[in-house]
Amino acid sequence: MADGNRPAVNVSLGPDLLGLLRVAAGHNQGGDERDGGKGSLAESDRQLLLRTAISEGADYVDIEEDIAASIPRFGKTKRIISLHNFRQTPADLEAIHARMAALDADIVKIATMANQPSDNLRMLRLVRESDVPTVGICMGDLGMPTRILAGKFGMPFTFATFHHERALAPGQLSFAQMTETYHYDQITAATKVFGVIADPVGHSLSPLVHNAAFAHAGIDAVYVPFRVPKEHLDDFLASADEWDLHGLSVTIPHKEAVLDKLTERDEWVAGIGAANTIVFEGAARRGYNTDCAAAMESLELALAADGAATTLAGKTALVLGAGGAAKAIAFGLRQRGADVAIASRTLDRAKQLADRLDCRVVDWKLRHGVGAQVLVNCTPVGMHPNVDESPFDKHHLKPSMIVFDTVYNPESTLLVKYAREQSCRVVTGIEMFVRQAALQFKLFTGKEAPMEVMAETLRRGMGPVRY
User: Which of 210, 255, 315, 327 does the annotation list as catalytic?
Assistant: First the structure.
């Protein structure tokens, strides 16, 4: 339960006291079967166990709305009146809440399935404006922000599971994720909100990196994953003030779609035609592209590593792939005077990108004959779990080359291993990822980023468990 104004994580504990109370309420293993969960107690046994918990003086019992009227208040035990809807977030949330509060509730708890991002704000608005302490959670990956931001909107507690593989409800986070990644117990109404918008978003490691940086720098902020389907992008950005959003990372599929929502664009956004960062300040929405700047800085540092000249001008660069990362990096290379060739397994996409940036196109099968001095892999080849693949053959790598693999999971891809074996200068995907995140951090906060902390956190987070 809450300590003062700070909410606490109410963890489902299994067959101990909290687990007993959840069984009594019909929530064991995610809810009674009648309420969309996995509990299998007969109704008479459910109510008997619930009454027993009350008679034994439990501090709180969690009672489903359907039986709340038949279980009267007794002794000191306080009543959490619950409702679960595993299909949708109903339009009449306020009426539902009023009906539940009238059942002698000390706390109202509503858990519904989020089918669109706006369901989250409707739920959090209900929590914030209620006179009765209310836990309002939207389930599913769309609803994850309601779990993380519970304290900001005034919930007395939220729910987590002990292990990420034992979630009791869709979208539920583990205790470790809530406390170690999102620092849930430190979030208050004053906490600034940042985040990443994507679809899907569950794979993103940006929350790990940015939240670690905020904590290290002592900044009262939280970075949240927002799953935003393309058709809901406009509505989500229009709600930035209500979320108290101060900045966003932007990734697939929104990097180009956000352009006409910006009030300002930096030179990289204007030239590349894609933004990966938005900073909100009043009515202003400023767009930036930190991918390009981070990639160029990484390459120039690699050039300077052995005392060589740091200029990319005049060098032949081969960019593998024609997606968003390839667009940003090819643009940066052209800006610095490099001769850029683009090779993609989809030739039409390579031609479109080459036409846009005034680059050469090379057939994928002929990529080894370019004579590249700089090789940049912007394809997913070599990414986990396909770690035994390389987009470029080892025997075509020369010691004079710089090899840059944008894949960061794993950091030491097969291409990176080949390059090191051939004594090439190497830039890894982690180097670029951390640099672009560090540039975002500075745009978000005005402060220099703790890059070592960010890199260490990213490497720790790239195990089999994805936060």
Answer: 255
